[in-house]
Amino acid sequence: MRLKLLLAMLVAFSTLVLAAGEITLVDQAGREVTLPEAPSRVASVYGVATWYVYALGAGDLLVAARYLGIRGDPEAQALIEELDPGFHTRAVAGDITPEELVARGTELVLGGAAKHAQFAELLAEVGIPTLLYSPESVEGILDAISLTGTALGKDKEAAALRGYFAVTVERIAQATEGLPPEDRPRVMFCGTALLRVASGDMFQTELIALAGGTSVGADLSGYWQEVNLEQVLAWNPQVILIAPYGPVKPSDILEDPDWQAIEAVKVGRVYKVPHFAAPWDVPLPDAALGLIWLADVLHPSLSGLDLAGEVRRFYRDFYGWELPEEVVTRALGG
Which CATH architecture has domain 179-331? Predict the structure, then answer.
C-alpha cells in the first residue's frame, strides 16, 4: 500500500524528470547512480551533504534538508537565516519520509553511505535517485565537492572550491611537515560529551595531524568512542578541542576538579572549535577554515595567516555571503 501511494504521488512529477537529460555518476558508496542532468529539486537527508550544496551556490535547489549541528543553537540558526532567507521552508525536523520527498517533487536525494543505504533502495523503487556520501578524509571532501558539482551542474563552482580546499591543505601541511614529534602537541578531540572522543577513523584525526598535532584517539576505531577519565589522564593531552555542536564548553573542563592534573587544563589550552552556519571540524568545505584555525591554535608562530580575512573571503566567494565584521569577531572569540 505504501509503495502504491508513493508511485501515485510520483506520477505528477514524472514528466519533468523524463524530459530532462540523464547522467550516470559513481557515488562515495561505489554505486552507479543515474540521475537527471542538473536537477532542479534536491533534498538532503544527510546534514553533511547539505553544506556541499550551499558551498556551490546551489542552496535554492533544496526542497528539503537536514542541517548539521544547529539543534539547540539559536546563533547558528540565525546565521543560516542570514545566509538563506528560505531556510525554514527547506529545514525538516526529524527523519524525512519518502512520502514527503515525493510530495515535494524531489528529483535527487543526497544521503550518507553509513546511514541511508536502505533508504536509497526504497527511493529507487519509486524512481528517485540517491547519491551517498562518505567524505571522512581530505580526499573524500575533494571527491564530494566534485561529485556534488557534477550532479548539480555546478562544475565550474566545484573546481574553484576544490582548488581552494586543496591549496589550503597543502599550505598548512607544508608549514607543519618539518615539525619533530616532540613539537607536535598531544590533542584530544571531544564531541557532544566530555568523554566522547574522536577515533582514528574520523576526519578530526586527520585535521589534527595536518595542523601539526598528534591525536590521542588515533588508535581508536569506529566513530565517536566513550572513554573514561583514567584513559584521559594516561593520555595527558596538551590541547583539548571541543566540537562546536553540543553542550560541552571549555569551562566544563577547565573548572572540573577531576581534570586539573591534565596538562591542557594546567595551561588553559582547551578550545571550542568555531563555526558559523556550519561547523568547522566536520568533513565539509568549511573545514578548510577549521584547518587554518587549528594550525594557528597549535603553532601560532608558524601560521602567519589572516584567519579573519580568510573567513570573510571564503564565505563571500563560495556562499555569496558578506559577513558582518561583528559576526567574524564574535565567532573567532575576539
Answer: 3-Layer(aba) Sandwich (3.40)
